[in-house]
Amino acid sequence: MTDARLALKLILPVAFFGYAGYANLDLIRHGDLSIADRDLFQGGVTGEIDSVYRDKLPHRDPSVGLVGALRYALLGEGRDGVVVGQDDWLFTTEEYRFAADAPVGLEETVARMAGMRAELAAAGSELVVLPLPAKVDIERRHGSDGAVSRRSAAEYDAFLAALEGAGLQAVDPRAAYAGGEAPGRFFRTDTHWTPETAGRVARHLAATGLVAAGEVSYVRQPGAAETFQGDLVSFVTSDRLAPVIGLAPERAVPYLAVAAEEDAEGGVLDLFGGESGGALVLVGTSYSANPTWSFAEALKLALGRDVLNHAAEGQGPVRPMQAFLAALRAGEAVPEVVVWEFPVRYLADPALWDGDGDAADGAAEEERHDA
């Protein structure tokens, strides 16, 4: 490390702690922070201090944002939770951990997934798994560590092989990712794929023939353009300061799949009478649940059949499947096929199978992403 870089690393904490000293004196001077007459061993003291710092610390949010912006601008670093790549590309640290280090290993995870497949099969439903590769794998030239990208790709291959070895039908969509160019595959400052990538993956899945095509003709209806701050920016600085340091807002144009006029008039969309029997069910993470990425709509267009979306944001890939299985046990109509979207980065999530003793419960926190 050069002397200049070391100096920069020291300037930020010195400035931060200097501000902290000023802020604490300001709180005491104005009577906001006073514990002289309290028992320091009572839990209420820490609760009050936490409340004061959260609600009354002067310039708290702007200061945190400013320190983060300076750290990023001077050192090219963010807080825990983000890894800064090349050309202002951001990656979640979840992609820098691997299944070999998780409490539940790859083989056990696939075995549990096979158990879920068996339950669906017993009910009369077919399962197709859609493993999603990591952003750090696909966008290697924008990453920070080529070794991590290669290891991520190897883990994806191992996951795919394990699924097939356990008899689960799985679709490898990486060829669909290769059909686009950055920045069209992933958002630069967000963990998710773009609507364009979601569409290519849906068409790739349809081309495999693992999911039978339907007879409904859909047309793509573009929605209003959306501008949003990538979900990884919060690990660097505030939304207000992000554009100043090169982290501009992202832009996406979501879309809907609308039945062609002749099909709508013919009542084809009412084929299932509002029930899920015979339909395709989509289960997964925010890649599927967030309407901005339009994945469920892309599947309708590619397959020509209705899609009932049971994906959920912020719960990882396992808990939505557990919830769907619980709904089937409770009497929900059985779909013909279930597509399970499963990002490979969750294989390393230590909470992926939490609560699995009750198959209807679970916990797999999707960072704050989901994103």
From TrEMBL:
Residue span(s) of domain AlgX/AlgJ SGNH hydrolase-like: 82-343
Keywords, comma-separated and alphabetical: Alginate biosynthesis, Periplasm, Signal, Transferase
GO MF, any single term: transferase activity
Pathway involvement of the protein, from the record: Glycan biosynthesis; alginate biosynthesis
Highest taxon of the lineage: Bacteria
Tagged with keyword Transferase: yes
Compartment(s): Periplasm
Pfam families: ALGX (PF16822)
Biological process annotations from GO: alginic acid biosynthetic process
Keyword Ion transport: no
GO terms under cellular component: periplasmic space
Protein name: Alginate O-acetyltransferase complex protein AlgJ
Species per Swiss-Prot/TrEMBL record: Tropicimonas sediminicola
Lineage, highest ranks first: Bacteria, Pseudomonadati, Pseudomonadota, Alphaproteobacteria, Rhodobacterales
